[in-house]
Amino acid sequence: MTTSISETPCIVADLDGTLLHDGETFEDRFLTERSIHAIELLHERDIPFIIATARPVSTGIDIAHTLHPDAVIYLNGSLIDYDPEHSTPQSLSQNDSPERENVTSIGFPSSRASEICRTIIAQIPSIHIGIVMDDVRYTNFDLSQIWTTQTWQYTDFTDIPEGTVDKIIIFPTQDQVHKLHTLIPEDLAVNISEGIMWMVMNPLANKEHALELICERWGRSPKDLVSFGDDLIDIGMLNMSGTGIAVANAHPSVLQAADQVCPSNNDDGVAQWIEQYLDSRQ
């Protein structure tokens, strides 16, 4: 245990590959009772807990309602929920306002997203691409091949409703990657999740910026954060936190960036770290 951890820390955890155990499919990933109990111990000690995930509301909100976090970062930072205890999928929809009292949405216009998708398809006709907005995925391919529980519909990107897009998702084959790099607008950011899904987003839509907004709202310092992650998109979050911790199964670059390494997700590494930390405080 390092001595740099704040006396009043705030624990932040990614879900997939970090807090959740693996499963044969995305839908089979799960929380263990040990992890649930470890988060309950944090609540008992009045230590804030934040979920920071790339998951959308549809596949993350049930986990949030199980763990009772003090805030949730969805969609890798595109959506921040400051009051998850009272949130519903409907209350987290964008409606007509990108910023509300208990929700912050960071995206870009659907008209521009549609134009980008059409431009990419014109150059790479076989690419699998889609737009995520208000927890609906508008795609040019059968999304149920990847996720069986997420709402989606076919599109040619001429019929996308007006609104604020959370992200463009792309599943390029290896021979499409080089060309795709040249087609992403320079003012947007690309994050790659689990090595297969490209997420084209507002450059401010990331976990580290979302945590900065939460810290500002709570009057906390990023130095108070103890953050856990496993994927490349977690590196910024680990670097900006007072203590960044990688699970042992993390990507090699994440392991290198972390201040500490805890056991793997399938060994309840986050829960083990929390238990040991709380014991040390006694």
TrEMBL record:
Cellular component aspect of the GO annotation: cytosol
Keyword Chaperone belongs to the record? no
- Give the compositionally biased regions (Polar residues): 87-96
Q: Where is this region: Disordered?
A: 85-106
Keywords per UniProt: Hydrolase
Q: What are this entry's molecular-function GO terms?
A: magnesium ion binding; phosphatase activity
Query: Where does the source fall among the domains of life?
Result: Bacteria
Q: Which NCBIfam families match?
A: HAD-SF-IIB
> What is the recorded name of this protein?
HAD-superfamily hydrolase
What is the protein's species of origin?
Answer: Bifidobacterium magnum
| Taxonomy of the source species | Bacteria, Bacillati, Actinomycetota, Actinomycetes, Bifidobacteriales
